[in-house]
Amino acid sequence: MLIGVFLLLLLVITAVAIVRSTDLFSGVMLSGIFSLLMALNFFLLDAADVALTEAAVGAGVATVLLLAGLKLTPSTEARARPVRPIAIIVVAIIALLMIYASFGQPSLGDPTAPAQTHVAPWYIENTPELVDIPNIVTAVLASYRGYDTLGEVFVVLTAGIGVMFLLGGGRGKPFSRLHTDPPQGLSHYLIPKVIARMLAPFILLFALFIQFHGEYSPGGGFQAGAIFVAGMILYALVRGEDKALAVIPPHVLLWMSAGGALLYGSVGLLGIAMGGQFLEYSVLADNPVTGQHIGIIVIELGVGLTVTGVLLSIFHAFAARD
């Protein structure tokens, strides 16, 4: 409890520092610290899946992308406009309404909360029989809420397409200006170069573990894709863009982005073809439980492919800009 209060206090201090900072570089770095603190809070709340994603995306990938965007902007913010009283009033009213609404929410860990007395007991009681995997969170996200997760995958794909068009990736070759003289990155710094060479293989290996072990421990396609992208970005920063694109070329990234979502949807259509409903995995094998395992593994692979393809495409598109 004391650690949670301490981390919450650090979150508030960091958020205020971000708002008050006039130096954009400091704001970006503070945002990365804020994401790390959020990941620690998620771990304390036993939300390990969300913590992994927050640490990889919020503190890792997002920070790198913000720094890349910062290169295209001035180092300091423009002079702020005078604060309008109406804006302060609107913000204060909304804040008070949100605080008032929070009083109607159940307390943290309340065993009598509706989620604990209706939904959660059903999942806990029936998952061993229907899905038979230890990680109930994966069963909920990949099987019971398969429609919702499919929608999230297409949201990621659509967002990636939009960013690529904004950065010029929708016109011909998306990553064309990669060779700079002198070379940019961290390749000429000895300590980052040595540490990155040591850590990158383990980061990628851990991503594969998270991908294919998500049924038995925290993880899955979203977390694995984000961690894999973080490892590849580290590799690109140290070894250079050309080396990173030699490992996963641009056309492969585009196929991964669309192919992952297509793979996910194809599992649903296969269920219909085999006499079941859309995203009903139990009909994929003679044993319904085995069919659930097959469906979850395949759709999680699709999620991982899309997340990896989209995030890496966005990173390389940023890196290709002048």
Automatic annotation (TrEMBL):
Membrane-protein topology: Multi-pass membrane protein
Pfam family for this entry, one: MbhD
Cellular compartment(s): Cell membrane
Annotated TM spans: 37-70, 82-103, 150-169, 190-210, 222-240, 252-274, 294-319
Residues in MrpA C-terminal/MbhE domain copies: 112-167
Domain MrpA C-terminal/MbhD: 9-74
Domain of life: Bacteria
Keyword NAD listed: no
Keyword terms of this UniProt record: Cell membrane, Membrane, Transmembrane, Transmembrane helix
Domain Na+/H+ antiporter MnhB subunit-related protein: 191-312
InterPro entries per the UniProt record, alphabetical: CPA3_antiporter_subunitB (IPR050622), MnhB (IPR007182), MrpA_C/MbhD (IPR025383), MrpA_C/MbhE (IPR046806)
GO cellular component terms listed in the entry, alphabetical order: plasma membrane
Family: Belongs to the CPA3 antiporters (TC 2.A.63) subunit B family.
UniProt-recorded name of the protein: Cation:proton antiporter
Record organism: Kineobactrum sediminis
